[in-house]
Amino acid sequence: MRLLLTVDSYEWRSGSESWRPLPTAGGAGANAPTGVAVGNFGKLNVFACPQDPAHPHRFSVQ
Fold this sequence. Notes:
This protein is mostly beta strands. 0% of the residues lie in helices and 27% in strands. The protein contains no helices and 3 strands. The chain has a 3-stranded antiparallel sheet, with no helix packed on it. The radius of gyration is 15 Å and the shape is elongated.
């Protein structure tokens, strides 16, 4: 299985300056505008089989 996609609970972390949304009025919730939480505010990893796309995907929450 190979990592296909990672979905994080936050769009950016305060220690990262690589991408940051524009500030909102009041600045509240700027790093989680969708309100989506993966697991216990972790990351969802989706794995796919590189040999056969018909194989089911595997998931891991960290």
